Amino acid sequence: MAPQIKEIPTKPYDGQKPGTSGLRKRVKIFQQEHYTENFIQSILDSITAKGATLVIGGDGRYLVKETVQTILRIAAANGVAKLIIGHDGILSTPAASNVIRKYKADGGILLTASHNPGGPNNDFGIKYNVSNGGPAPENVTNKIFEKTKTISSYKVVEGEKDLDLSTLGAKQFAGMKVEIIDSVKDYVQMLQEIFDFDLIKSFLTTRSGEFKVLFDGLHGVTGPYGKAILVETLGLSPSVVQNDVPLPDFGGGHPDPNLTYAKSLVDKVEKDGIHFGAASDGDGDRNMIYGKGAFVTPSDSVAIIADWADRIPYFKKGGVKGLARSMPTSAAIDLVAKKKGLECFEVPTGWKFFGNLMDAGRLSICGEESFGTGSDHIREKDGVWAIIAWLNILAAANRESPNELVGIKEILQKHYKVYGRNFFSRYDYEEVPSDGANEMVAHINQGITSKSLIGSKFSSKSTGETFVVSEAYNFDYTDPIDKSVSKNQGQVVRFEDGSRVVWRLSGTGSQGATVRMYVERYVDPSKGDKELTRETAEGLKGLIEVALEISKLKEFLKREEPTVIT
Ligand code: VG1
Ligand code: CO
């Protein structure tokens, strides 16, 4: 039977609203009749689908392959000209961003729920990226959401066999061009143009006995990327890469690179005395840098990369145009910006807010406290990029101090001595009742709008410290480029000593509500080593008590302890 275009009647589903980074729900929700089709058709209805070239790739989780076939049928029926698809439907999120830019595609559909667990009982996600390679801004995601509310039919090609995604090359699907591309090649090539691979290689070779490396793919998408770079390009032994086979359920784990979920990395680093450990998340846009006895908070990581940027060829050549962080991220990067005389932006949570600044040539390096670090080489955060950035910096630092072995710890301590330290921690309370979460937000709001918080004194029972509130506000953001406004992006309370607490509700959870509480306390370099090198939990103890008191969090959420502390 020749392919036929059919119009299938459907009804809108509630709640197809893209969150911080796409639509994320349980797999079972996506498997409901017409659910995925409705959302794909709504995306195509919100862009100029006819004649478009789109990139398709996913993080290899359960449901990716089937969804690629669904997209093929709907895209062909809607007159899309060409799909560029990753081998077996796989592209890491940063690789997809690069492919969209490199091949000048009109956009891309990314199949990922990022760091959320995968498998039939876990999460799936669909995200639309625009032609600059970045996540669609709110005006586009709002349009998609509006379409999902009124959709009455979708178009699909029938009578066509599934396309073979396992062989590379140019193909046809129901009259539409399709190109299956190598998932890794373009990405590796891009990194080679950014970093000083010769320097990294010579450092790793000459100090190979002293400086051990370990990369953990957490069974997410980045295993093959890590292998291609560390083993095939930099010549390290295959044993420096672990959990490198992407699995549809991530091996039953939670593919989120932090001290809790990347335990496989942390344990091995400590046991084997590894100097440089790193992990990435399910879709490859997050990273964690962790050497023996030295954990780099993501807020410090981006500040340090910015500080050392002139050792990285990409920035040496193009310069650093400006820096930025998401609002809850610590102000460590602001201090670097100040010293270097660079512009520094504070944007809401979510990588989509960095894109306009990059496109306008005002932003080069940015990060989020949630293990997201990146630059304007693409329009997504980039886990493997951050890891190689650190190797480039360490190689340069060792070239500059040839008589000692400079590791992560030495880089951190040197940084604190110059800039001081922003102690930072995030408490996550996952899947709490939405009512309780909303009541807590309302309670904090009451303190903000009545101005009753300002001037209030709070004391910690255990440390005796007193914190006096100097400011309390809801964070609203006006994009400096297109002037679009995003309201209520988190609640902020600042104290006279410069400390800060932020509360916000997650926009990536797939069930109930997740409350995040972020605490930050700055310690001046003049306070000396003892204060600067304390454990994070110890440095923040008093402030955390006060944050819990102000928000009455335990009362509203009925939770004694957070689910995860990062
Ligand atoms: C979280 C993080 C945010 C990040 C987002 C997507 O969002 O806090 O910083 O951009 O995940 O990351 P939320 O709304 O749950 O706090 V990824 O690696 O999941 O695409
Ligand atoms: Co991710």
TrEMBL record:
Pfam families, per the entry: PGM1_C_vert_fung (PF24947), PGM_PMM_I (PF02878), PGM_PMM_II (PF02879), PGM_PMM_III (PF02880)
Cofactor: Mg(2+)
Region (Disordered), start-end ranges: 1-20
Any one Gene Ontology molecular-function term assigned to this protein's record: magnesium ion binding
Catalytic activity: alpha-D-glucose 1-phosphate = alpha-D-glucose 6-phosphate; O-phospho-L-seryl-[protein] + alpha-D-glucose 1-phosphate = alpha-D-glucose 1,6-bisphosphate + L-seryl-[protein]; alpha-D-glucose 1,6-bisphosphate + L-seryl-[protein] = O-phospho-L-seryl-[protein] + alpha-D-glucose 6-phosphate
Transmembrane feature ranges: none
Domain Alpha-D-phosphohexomutase alpha/beta/alpha, chain residue ranges per copy: 16-154, 186-290, 302-406
This protein's UniProt keywords: Carbohydrate metabolism, Glucose metabolism, Isomerase, Magnesium, Metal-binding, Phosphoprotein
Family membership: Belongs to the phosphohexose mutase family.
Name of protein: phosphoglucomutase (alpha-D-glucose-1,6-bisphosphate-dependent)
